[in-house]
Amino acid sequence: MIVNLSNWLSQFVLRVLQISNMNIIIKTPEQIEGIRKSSKLAGDVLLYIAGFVKEGVTTNFLDQLIHNYIVEHGAIPATMNYNGFPKSCCISLNEVICHGIPSDRVVLKNGDILNIDITTILGGYFGDTSKMFTVGETTEAANKLINATQHCLDLGIQQVKPGNYLGNIGYVISRYAISQGFSVVYEYCGHGVGIHFHEDPQVDHAAKKNSGPKLKPGMIFTIEPMINEGRPRVKVDELDGWTARTVDHKLSAQFEHTVLVTNTGCEVLTDVSNQYPIT
């Protein structure tokens, strides 16, 4: 393969500069408590909406329920009007990787898989989480993809501890996903969160071992691997400028949690099902 060396070097230098210039906010105890409350609410939204995900409902119906739940709990849906996004959550079906816009035209049917992505603003603090849902009977291939993506998130969370390198999150995620015959979306990533919707650091889901900055207590960021059944590339719909699909129309899955680096390990702030112990 012929490589354009000058272009490769420029990209490498740019990435080094991005890493060195990261402005990672170390949260104070007061900020952590506020982000913890917002994150719990975001997780509660996913528990609430689960009972309504069924054949025949529209994604806009789900969005309206989510909007009402968030507002009734004294919070604001962060996606509403964010850079022009028109809805209170993202709902991404089947080959949609992320940023799916809820619509009355999208009706859930048997066999669908979908990601619902929630970000809340409570007391000025952000919490961000997403998970996969299934409708009726799904295929063995879809179930394998979903299970592998969930495991990718679990592996990434296991890397969150002070002194470890940020890049090891993406390293273990990509290594496992590829071993299962899947690909990792690299055009979208996790991110710092809490004071703002999107902060440093950028959390890549495919990275070199021991790369990036070292993790420190007080860092809060999302891990949200997007794993594709086929090719990793993304194509954004030209009409709405948001909906990101797989280029080969094969399935995609995603799970996301907001995590806090503690003095000895991590706390998964959006885990309302007690799946992850605080370390």
Task: Characterise this structure.
The protein is an alpha+beta fold and 279 residues long. It has a single domain, classed as Creatine Amidinohydrolase (Alpha-Beta Complex). The chain is built from 5 helices and 15 strands. It has helices spanning 5-20, 29-49, 59-72, 140-158, 167-179; strands at residues 76-77, 90-93, 96-98, 113-122, 125-134, 183-184, 190-192, 199-203, 220-223, 226-228, 234-236, 244-246, 252-254, 257-261, 266-268. The strands form 5 sheets. Strands 1, 2, 4 and 5 form a 4-stranded antiparallel beta sheet that branches. Strands 3-12-11 form a 3-stranded antiparallel beta sheet, with no helix packed on it. A 3-stranded antiparallel beta sheet has the order 6-10-13, covered by helices on one side. Helix 4 packs antiparallel against helix 5 (167-179).
